[in-house]
């Protein structure tokens, strides 16, 4: 208390001293009332102003008490104690519940060469600089096909000029020639891979096209789709999937 230079005012109240006597601030801001932190009245003050600021935390609670004209010894420790015992604060600041993840799928756990089991997805489009030719301007957009190994998590990316089955087959040929034979492909049931996109007039890669089926048959590869209305991350945590291969 001696460091706070306390004094007793004309009403017999102990206040904090200082060098702000001639300022235009209010009496409570210049010389706040000094209250021992171990007193029950100090805890009641902290509770009152903590509720008044709608449980917004320690710093705002301390500022509200100081602005009201009170100087509580050991205020920081007392505010921390009050907030830790506050039911609403514990509810607001509680840890979020996490979902228990399911078992990993077999493709993630098998000992196999890289890119034996591969997840596929498409990215884009990105606009590029248009180049003029005699027949007009070439396609000014590019897409990318992302191949991800299910066991090693390695990533291979191929750039394609258009969202069509022929461009996708070329990307598959380049991928297989570099990474080797793929046993199973996995993808979602987005419009990039199912035939419904063709009916809507959307540029897409149709896995059910005859040319792509023939290519997969020649390579002895199976294409599997995730369950409809299902995020791609589901394949990483393991779940049942709908089998959709060119051999059905």
Question: What does this protein structure show overall?
Answer:
By secondary structure, this protein is an alpha/beta fold. It folds into two domains: 2-92, Endonuclease III, domain 1 (Orthogonal Bundle), CATH 1.10.340; 106-243, Nucleotidyltransferase, domain 5 (2-Layer Sandwich). It has ten helices and twelve strands. A hairpin with a 5-residue loop joins strand 1 and strand 2. The radius of gyration is 34 Å and the shape is elongated. The termini are far apart. The model is unreliable at 230-248 (pLDDT under 50). This is Integrase zinc-binding domain-containing protein.
Mean pLDDT: 80
| Mass-distribution shape | elongated
- Tell me the name of the CATH class of the largest domain: Alpha Beta
How much beta, percentage-wise? 15-25%
Rg measurement, Å: 34 Å
- Total helical elements: 10
Give the tags:
248 residues, alpha/beta, Endonuclease III, domain 1, Nucleotidyltransferase, domain 5, 2 domains, six-stranded mixed β-sheet, two-stranded antiparallel ribbon, disordered C terminus
């Amino acid at each position: 208390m001696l460091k706070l230079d306390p004094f007793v005012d004309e009403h017999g109240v102990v206040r904090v001293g200082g060098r702000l006597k001639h300022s235009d601030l209010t009496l409570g801001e210049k010389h706040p009332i000094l209250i021992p932190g171990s007193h029950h009245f100090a805890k009641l003050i902290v509770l009152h102003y903590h509720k008044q600021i709608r449980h917004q935390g320690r710093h705002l609670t301390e500022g509200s008490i100081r602005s009201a004209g009170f100087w509580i010894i050991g205020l920081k420790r007392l505010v921390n104690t009050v907030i830790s015992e506050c039911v609403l604060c514990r509810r607001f600041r509680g840890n979020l519940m996490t979902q228990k993840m399911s078992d990993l799928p077999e493709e993630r756990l098998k000992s196999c060469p890289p890119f034996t089991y591969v997840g596929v997805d498409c990215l884009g489009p990105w606009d590029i600089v248009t180049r003029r030719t005699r027949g007009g301007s070439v396609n000014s957009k590019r897409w990318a096909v992302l191949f991800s190994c299910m066991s090693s998590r390695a990533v291979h990316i191929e750039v394609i000029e258009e969202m069509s089955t022929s461009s996708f087959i070329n990307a598959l040929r380049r991928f297989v020639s570099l990474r080797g034979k793929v046993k199973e492909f996995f993808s979602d049931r987005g419009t990039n891979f199912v035939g419904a996109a063709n009916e809507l007039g959307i540029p897409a890669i149709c896995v059910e096209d005859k040319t792509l089926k023939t290519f997969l048959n020649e390579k002895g590869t199976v294409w599997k789709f995730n369950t409809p209305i299902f995020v791609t991350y589901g394949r990483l945590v393991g779940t049942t999937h709908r089998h959709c291969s060119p051999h059905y």
